[in-house]
Specification:
alpha+beta; 19 strands; 443 residues
């Protein structure tokens, strides 16, 4: 009996050990695989969100950005440890939803990871030396512009990006000249297409522009930076300063997130040079969607105080010290555009990045677009966002245009409109892009 009990105890203890160690190890490996898939899918979707492809009519085509997104997603996946070692490229499969029009509104990136040789320990006594562990995740780059068009109600869930700059751009095509009698809108404001992009061809366009009949001015403040009541009529490409002056301690977390060049800057300038963590949402202002913003109507004195302050703060933001090649640039050789890629300048804060293609840049900023129907009153209604790239031109950040020397050249990279009918709790942005990235598959 003692021998029989001892033999049975051997199998019982072995089974318990297999359950206690092998099963836990497999669950751990499964969790690691899910984390790898989640991170890779989000990284791939972020590439598409920053590429500008979600703002176009599927031209030059969804596959234009897939190679970059697949490379980034794969690299993120193989950087993860699953079951005691990093994944191999052969163990990662990245796929996309290529069919129009779904790609235009919400491109999806699906990542499948699978490792077939996760080792076992005590389960070896039953002849099982290796098991298979895998996971799948799907992430979405959500642009509400197309979602409102495709929905039966004409509404879309609003988005709420962070790091939004205190420049309220009127709903007027910024590439149009100031004297245009009826400049087209950026986003529609009524009917079932409220929030839709009027002209997707604006992606990649800049202001100022040398093209005849285009805006010769750059980005600068309306009303000389002093927008006292009554608020003046809007002009294409000119922004109203927003009342987003936030004290430095509350501006960024942690406090050392403020750039070194921010010392001595005013609160308005800090809101430009650093990242305001408070989300700014578009759509109807409500308890679940606090989207109200005010144009700063404080009188700061005569002249272009806001414009000169903006140039100083923008120079700090994009690491501009007065020379060409220091700041990040749009990579004009990485065709087609979109998708956009950016070349790191010599003053890019990432060590060793200079001269290399980067997917994000401090020169890439998000600007709220407001309903500019006259008369404009506070609070204004945010109806969408433009993501623009700030471009030093001719060796200087301040563009000397017809309106003065404190204008900044800007290129449109992304457009995301919610319109004035968007309702519900907004999707929080994760970074400077107005195109939100989120996981849409359950773990």
């Amino acid at each position: 009996m003692i021998l029989l009990v001892a033999m049975f105890m051997l199998f019982i203890v072995g089974a318990m050990a297999a359950l206690a160690i092998d099963v836990v190890s497999l669950y751990t490996a499964r969790s690691e695989a899910q984390l790898a898939a989640d991170g890779a899918a989000l990284a791939g979707a972020r590439v598409l969100a920053n590429s500008g492809l979600t703002s176009t009519n599927n031209s030059p085509g969804p596959t234009a950005g897939e190679d970059i997104a697949r490379t980034v997603a794969t690299q993120v996946a193989i950087s993860n440890d699953v079951g005691g070692r990093n994944l191999k490229k052969s163990e990662v499969v990245v796929s996309f939803n290529d069919t129009a029009p779904s790609f235009v509104t919400n491109p999806h990136v699906t990542v499948q990871v699978q490792r077939t040789d996760v080792p076992t320990f005590f389960a070896r006594i039953w002849g099982s030396t290796q098991v298979t562990v895998g996971a799948t995740a799907t992430a979405e780059a959500y642009n509400p512009s197309g979602a409102s068009v495709l929905s039966s109600s004409g509404t879309a869930t609003p988005v709420a990006p962070i790091c939004v700059k205190p420049w309220l751009l009127p709903n007027l095509d910024p590439t149009q000249p100031p004297g245009a009698l009826t400049p087209p809108a950026i986003f529609t404001l009524s009917g079932p297409t409220s929030g839709a992009i009027v002209n997707p061809g604006l992606v990649g366009q800049s202001w100022p522009s040398a093209t005849l009949g285009s805006n010769p001015n750059g980005l600068f403040a309306a009303c000389g930076g002093n927008c006292t009541v009554p608020i003046p009529a809007p002009l294409p490409g000119q922004y109203y300063p927003a009342a987003m002056d936030i004290p430095a301690p509350a501006l960024a977390t942690p406090a050392n997130a403020l750039p070194d060049c921010s010392a001595g800057l005013r609160p308005y300038q800090l809101a430009i040079a650093a990242c305001v963590q408070q989300p700014v949402s578009c759509g109807v202002n409500s308890a679940t969607n606090p989207s109200a913003l005010n144009i700063d109507t404080t009188f700061y004195g005569a002249g272009t105080l806001r414009d000169s302050e903006t140039v100083v703060a923008a120079a700090c933001l994009i690491h501009y010290n007065g020379g060409m090649g220091q700041t990040d640039k749009i990579d004009t050789l990485a065709l087609p555009s979109p998708p956009f890629q950016f070349l790191a300048g010599s003053d890019n804060p990432v060590p060793g990045a200079s001269g290399s293609d980067v997917l994000v840049s401090d020169s890439l900023v998000t600007i709220p677009v407001i309903d500019s129907t006259m008369p404009i009153t506070n609070p204004v209604t945010v109806i969408g966002f433009l993501q623009v790239f700030l471009n030093p031109s001719g060796g200087t950040l301040a563009y000397s245009g017809p309106a003065g020397s404190n204008e900044i050249e800007a290129t449109i990279i992304n457009m995301a409109g919610c319109g004035n009918t968007a309702t519900g709790t907004p999707i929080l942005g994760n970074g400077a892009s107005p195109v939100a990235v989120r996981l849409i598959s359950p773990p």
